[in-house]
């Protein structure tokens, strides 16, 4: 099984270890993993901002780079959602390009969804222990139906206790350009999310999208909380220490 790992630009720039964690998980499941060296952005920022030209240019590039793979997997609900849900909308009525976009969309998965429903990973290579709470990222939840998949994988770790927070499905306030255009509203939403996290008493908040991670961790630190850890689900599932 040849799997193309869509690292995502935020992971590449901000926390590359998430990409390495995803690679470890896929290889532990028996996948042959391909990481195209020239990959960049999936085009989601342009799409969300109404810049279809830039979104299309990046989509064409990504399709060229990944269409030789049996599957495309991303450690991000938003990037996987962009490819799976929105790529065909970039090529309406365009014959060959639309067909290529649709074929790739059908083979694209968010990481925990792929591990749970395609390769059916039974034993994540993790030694993680502790009490965690889980934040459901908007795109993964609402576009791809990612809800129980990460929880099922966490349940396979004997040292992990999951404590659900109130409002686990409520947006953290990031929303891509939303957090820039509506900074005060975004900050208030992040504050509410932080309160729900802290109320659980969990040591760690776990999630599946780096945008949410940056927003939540940044707000926790600005509030003076330097102890609550914010980890991507891939980091927890591949934890070695």
Topology:
Blueprint: E1 2-5, H1 9-14, H2 17-28, E2 32-34, H3 44-48, H4 52-66, E3 71-74, H5 77-86, H6 96-106, E4 108-110, H7 111-117, E5 130-134, H8 138-144, H9 148-155, E6 160-162, H10 178-181, H11 183-200, E7 204-207, H12 210-222, E8 229-232, H13 233-237
Parallel strand pairs: 1-2, 1-3, 3-4, 5-6, 5-7, 7-8
Tell me about this structure.
The protein has 241 residues and is an alpha/beta fold. It has two domains: 2-117, Rossmann fold (3-Layer(aba) Sandwich); 130-237, Rossmann fold, CATH 3.40.50. It has 13 helices and eight strands. It has helices at 9-14, 17-28, 44-48, 52-66, 77-86, 96-106, 111-117, 138-144, 148-155, 178-181, 183-200, 210-222, 233-237; strands at residues 2-5, 32-34, 71-74, 108-110, 130-134, 160-162, 204-207, 229-232. The strands form two sheets. A four-stranded parallel beta sheet has the order 2-1-3-4, sandwiched between helices. Strands 6-5-7-8 form a four-stranded parallel beta sheet, sandwiched between helices. Helix 12 links the parallel strand 7 (204-207) and strand 8 (229-232).
Task: Sum up the structure in keywords.
alpha/beta, Rossmann fold, 13 helices, 8 strands
**What's the shape?**
globular
Order of helices and strands: EHHEHHEHHEHEHHEHHEHEH
Could you say what the CATH topology of the largest domain is called?
Rossmann fold
User: Rg, please?
Assistant: 18 Å
Structural class: alpha/beta
Termini separation comes to 29 Å
Low-confidence stretches: none
Largest sheet descriptor:
4 strands, parallel
The CATH first-level class of the largest domain comes to Alpha Beta
